[in-house]
Design a protein that fits this description.
single chain; about 325 residues; alpha/beta; Glutamyl-tRNA Synthetase, domain 3; two-stranded parallel sheet; 11 strands
Amino acid sequence: MIRGRLAPSPTGALHLGNARTFLLAWLSLRRQGGRVVLRIEDLDGPRVKPESLAGVIEDLRWLGLDWDEGPDVGGPWGAYLQTQRLPLYEETLARLRRANLVYPCVCTRGDVQRAASAPHPGEEGPRYPGTCRDRFASLEEAAAASGRTPAWRFRVPAGPLEFRDGFQGSVAIDVDSQVGDFVVWKGSGTPAYQLAVVADDVAMEITEVVRGDDLLSSTPRQRLIYEALGHAPPATWHVPLVVGPDGLRLAKRHGDTRIAAFRAQGVSAERLVGLLAAWSGLRPAGGECRPDELVADFDWSRIPRERIVWQGIL
């Protein structure tokens, strides 16, 4: 059974960029007769806005997307909110600890930045130099020596990791040289994104992941965790983002691109889906349609390779 997921994070409202990626994920699954899982990734602490959850579900349904499992419909692999799945993440961390694939780390962000020989481009921050890799014999020793609650880092092997992405083709990323050992469990006592998403995809038997190309660099880290847990990773498609005229991902500086805002202005769901379909090479510009009208002739070869630039005009 082909299984994929829509995995919004309720840190804000659904916007055009999110909606386009979710539409492609949904179309790919429905074209193959697969099952769609709605999973809410709400572990991002203070950034999570409780009111956003209902809004995201409402916007997705208004656009015409549906799912077979989720927080509002149930299913055999629930709960479908990550904050209700903490025992699974704790057991996953325990498995990594038993295999000696993680170690306690008491370095702060400032420690890592000071240890870096050069600034690291992008959003990842500087490469972790491995300061705590062989420093402590136990979690208790790390806590006693530092007075801090340790995080847990994954031991990254040297050399590039190669994989094939359904959209990007052959990819090789050297996690060790670019990122170093990465955090899988935060000092605050909560799982990091990389561990939680792998644990969930394994437990929910996800076979296909469609997401924005800004997450391509996360894939090799997640593949390392899959390998450590003895599971084959899902097939991935990393699709171009929708960006503003400045080339940056959609944000408030590009105007109000929230689905809820277009709804309030009286824009129809068919018009918005028509726009997303045109961006995706599935329909001519200026048309209107529903998602279910796009399923029969959906094909990944039709999706444009370049990022979509939002000019503020429907």
